[in-house]
Amino acid sequence: MNKTSNKLSDIGELELVDRISNWVPPSNDKIVLGVGDDAAAFRVSADKLALLTSDMLIENIHFDLKYTGAYQLGYKSLAVNLSDIAAMGGIPVYALINIALPSNIGLDFVEDFYKGINALAGEYSVSIIGGDTCSTPDRIMISITVWGGVEADLLLSRKGAQVGDILLVTGVLGESSAGLAILLSDLDRLLYAALINRHIMPAPRYHEARLIAKSKAATSMMDLSDGLASDIKRICKQSQVGADIQLSKLPVSDMLRHVAGQLNRPVYDFAVAGGEDYELLFTIPPDKLADFKSKCATPVSVIGSIKPPEHGIAFIDSKGNNVSFLKGYEHFG
Amino acid sequence: MNKTSNKLSDIGELELVDRISNWVPPSNDKIVLGVGDDAAAFRVSADKLALLTSDMLIENIHFDLKYTGAYQLGYKSLAVNLSDIAAMGGIPVYALINIALPSNIGLDFVEDFYKGINALAGEYSVSIIGGDTCSTPDRIMISITVWGGVEADLLLSRKGAQVGDILLVTGVLGESSAGLAILLSDLDRLLYAALINRHIMPAPRYHEARLIAKSKAATSMMDLSDGLASDIKRICKQSQVGADIQLSKLPVSDMLRHVAGQLNRPVYDFAVAGGEDYELLFTIPPDKLADFKSKCATPVSVIGSIKPPEHGIAFIDSKGNNVSFLKGYEHFG
User: Are strands A166-170 and A280-284 parallel, antiparallel or unpaired?
Assistant: First the structure.
C-alpha cells in the first residue's frame, strides 16, 4: 500500500489524541477532564471527583513472554493503570480486567496472571470487580480499567503548568528501559536484576502522588510512561507552555550509568528517551518550592523549568548548549 | 503442543469465569456485583449504585472488515457495552474507548469509527471521556468501558431467578446471526438488509430494559450476546436454577424463517444457537406476569419457565420432546 498523507503513521499519537478530542467533544458539564489526560475525571458530588482510566497491553508490542512471566505481566498490567490514577492525585478503588487469550494457553498461566494482579491490588486495596475474557488466535491482549476517586481540590492534571514553574520528577529515570536493554543483551541478568525488575514489575508512585497532591503546591502532574522526551510534550501541549530541561540535573542511578557504559550507549538514551519508568513529572511555582521540598518525604529532583509556549521544549547540556534529542516512545511511529 | 487437561480450550468460558471469580474474591462490602455478571455494581450512595462494564472486540473474531465499515464498527462496539449496562436496568453515562490499530490504517477510518461511536453515544446521552490508542502490527483490537448508574432498588442481575418464574425475551431472536449467515452466503444482501443491519449495528435494548426494571416485576435479567443456548446457562448458573424453554414459543420473524429456508438451515440454528441479538432475557414471578404484560409497552414473549437446579436446562419441541441442542457461541471452544 502506498504511504499517503492520511495514515496514522504520518501523524503520531499526540496529533491523533488531539483529533480524537475534537471528534468526541465533552457533552456534559460534570466532565472535569476528558480525552487527553492520564485519566478522565467527572464530578460525583460537590467535593468529590470520580477518575476513570483504561490502558491496553499487547503481546510483542508492550510485553514479550520471553522476558516476563504471567505473574509479572498481571502485576505490570494493573500497575500502569494504577499509575494513571496516581498521576491525578487520586485513589484507585476498583478494576476491570479484560484479557484475550489463545485457547492453547494453560490455565496455570491465567491463574498466575491473576495472582500478579491480586498481589498489587491487595497492596493498594483495589478490588477486581469484573472484566471480559475471550479467545484470540494469536497475541495476548490485555485491557484494564481502573475506577478511583479524588477530592476535587486535590486533582492534578496535565493542564495547569505556568510559565516560571519549576519542573520536578520523583525517583530516578531510565532504569526501566535499561532493564529491557539488559534483557535484550548478553549482560548478566542476575547482576542487574534491580533494573530488570523496574521494567517487568514497575511500582506505581501512588503514595508519592498523594503526597504531592496533598501538598497543594503542584500545578500539574503526569506519569512518565513513554519517556521524558515524549511525555514533556504532553504537559506542554495541555498546559500551552514550553520547557527547559537541564540534562545534568536528571536523577540517574550509578547502576544505570554503569549499564549504559557496558552497553556502549549514552545514559540519556534511557533517562530521556526510554519509557516505562512510571515516575511522576510535576510542576511547582518557585515560591512554593522550598516549603514543598522541606516537607516532602520522598526523593524528588528539580530538572528544569516551564517557559512560554514560543520557547518550545529544550534539553540543555552542562555547557549550556541546546541538545536536539532523541524522541521517546512514539505510538504509530 | 499436546493438548493437556489444563488448557483454556478444555474448560470453556463459563468455567473460566467461575475460576476467575475465585481467584479475585470480592474484598469490599460496597461491591454489590463482581465478576460474573453483565456489569459490576458498587454502592456510591444509600440509594444509588454505579455500574462498570468493559468488553473487547477483536478483528476476525468479533468482526470482519469485509462485512462492516468503520462507522458501523464504532456503533456496534459501543452498543454491546451499552447493552451490558441496560441489562442491569441501568443508565449509561460515560465511556472510554481503547483501540489498537495497525499504523497503515487511514485517518478516515479512525474518524468514521468515532463518528459511529458518537452517533450511538448521542442517542443515549453518553459522553466519551477518554481511552487509549496504540499501534498493533496486525488485527484491530477494541476495548470499550462504560460507566453508568442505577437506583439500588431497580438493579437486575443474573442472580435472582426463582423456581416457578416465567422466562421472557424482548423482540425477536436469531436475526443477527442470520444477518451474518447472509453476508457469508450468496444470498442477495439488499433483500435482507434488515437482518444484516441487526448484525452490524445492533440496537441496545435500553428503553425496554428500563421499562422492565421500573416495573419491579422482574427477578433477573441479562442481554443475549452469545445466543440463548449459551446465555440461559449463565442465568441458571448465577441463580442456581434450571429452566424449560418451549421452542415453539420463541419469537421468530417471518423474514428469519424465510432466510433459514433459503440457507437450508433450521430456524433454531439462529434463534437458539445464534448470538449477538442483544435482546433481553428476563424472569418474572407468575403472579406478576399478567399485570406486567398489560403495562408493558414493548413486545415481549414468554418462552419458558424456571425449574429446580436438578432439572437442568431443557429445550422442548412442539411434541413435548426434549431436544438436545446445539450450543451457542463458546469462547475458547
Answer: antiparallel
Tell me if B54 and A128 make a contact (CB, 8 A cut-off): no
Nearest chain A Cα distance for residue B219, angstroms: 22
Query: Do the Cβ atoms of B127 and A61 come within 8 Å?
Result: no
Mean pLDDT score of chain B: 93
Flag if A20 and B100 touch (Cβ within 8 Å).
no
The beta-carbon neighbor of B135 closest among A24, A54, A332 is A332
Nearest to B11 by CA among A74, A59, A69, A110: A110
Architecture per CATH, A8-154: 2-Layer Sandwich (3.30)
Per CATH, which fold does A166-316 belong to? Phosphoribosyl-aminoimidazole Synthetase; Chain A, domain 2 (3.90.650)
Residues of B in contact with A24 (CB under 8 A): 97, 114, 117-118, 121, 127-128
Q: How far is CA B178 from CA A52, A312, B182, B272, B276, in A?
A: 37, 57, 6, 11, 10
Looking at residue B252, what DSSP letter applies?
-
pTM of the model: 0.93
**8 A C-beta contact, residue A58 and residue B136:** yes
Cα within 13 Å of Cα(B46), Cβ side: 0
Residue B264 at interface with chain A, using a CB cutoff of 8 Å:
no
Q: Which residue has the cell 535499561?
A: A178
C-alpha cell at A40: 478522565
Strand duo A313-316 + B40-43: pairing: unpaired
What are the domain boundaries of chain A?
8-154, 166-316
Nearest CA in chain B to A19: B111
In chain A, which ranges are continuous DSSP H helix?
A: 8-23, 70-86, 107-123, 175-183, 193-200, 206-215, 228-239, 254-262, 267-271, 286-295
Per-residue cell: B16 = 473460566
Burial class (CB in 10 A: 0-12, 13-18, 19+), B310: exposed
What residue in A sits closest to B97 (Cα-Cα)? A54
* Complex-level ipTM: 0.92
Q: Is the distance from CB of A260 to CB of A270 less than 8 angstroms?
A: yes
Neighboring chain A residues of B58 at a CB cutoff of 8 Å:
100, 134, 136, 141
pLDDT for res A325: 64
| Segments of chain A scoring below 50 in pLDDT | 1-4, 333
How many angstroms away from the CA of A114 is the closest CA of chain B?
7
pLDDT at B268 exceeding the cut of 80: yes
What is the rounded distance in angstroms from the CA atom of residue A147 to the CA atom of residue B194? 38
Sheet holding A48-58, edge to edge: A31-33, A40-43, A48-58, A141-151, A91-101, A127-135
Distance, in Å, from the CA atom of B262 to the CA atom of B182, rounded to the nearest integer, reads 10
3-state secondary structure of A258: helix
Per residue in B187-232, pLDDT (tens digit) is 999 999 999 999 999 999 999 999 999 999 999 999 999 999 999 9
Instruction: Please answer whether residues A251 and A280 qualify as being in contact, where contact means their C-beta atoms are separated by less than 8 angstroms.
Output: no
What number is the average pLDDT over the span B26-41? 88
Provide φ and ψ at A54, rounded to 5°: -150, 125
Residues 6+ apart with CB under 8 A from B41: B31, B32, B33, B49, B50, B51, B88, B150, B155, B157
